[in-house]
Amino acid sequence: MSKSSYKGVSKVRLVVDNLNTHVVSSLYRAFSAVKARALAKRLEFHYTPKHGSWLNIAEISISILSKQCIDRRISNLELLNREIGAWENEYNSKRNTVNWQFTTDDARIKLHKLYPVF
């Protein structure tokens, strides 16, 4: 991507996870104050949920797609695209949500090696 890719754009929306470096203050560590401020004015941060990742949601959606739509032999790419498009329209019209049930307490039990006790 070239430097001029976003030249005419007033705001750039960034969808990021909650990693501690995905914050405006990181710009000031990487660039001069003037450059960092100019970038900060143009960036709009959108954070994924702390308790679940957009990648999890994408994986769940792909799993549902494969079970509900493409769990059979489809003879050509044109038909595949039509089938997926129809499924996608119906799926999105239902405005489904993800019900996260894996809590921090569950994580501390299941992933106990990653959560040391002090």
Structure commentary:
The chain has 118 residues and is mainly alpha-helical. The chain has five helices and two strands, in the order βααβααα. It has a two-stranded parallel ribbon. The N and C termini lie far apart (45 Å). The model has no long low-confidence stretch (mean pLDDT 83).
| Spatial ordering of strands, largest sheet | 1-2
Which consecutive residue ranges, at least 5 long each, have pLDDT under 50? none
- According to DSSP, the number of beta strands is 2
Give the class from helix and strand content and strand pairing: mainly alpha
Beta-strand residue fraction: 5-15%
Count the DSSP helices: 5
Q: Which series of helices and strands comes N to C?
A: EHHEHHH
Helix residue percentage: 40-55%
Major sheet attributes: 2 strands, parallel
Q: What's the mean pLDDT score?
A: 83
Backbone shape: flat
Cα(first) to Cα(last) distance is 45 Å
Radius of gyration: 21 Å
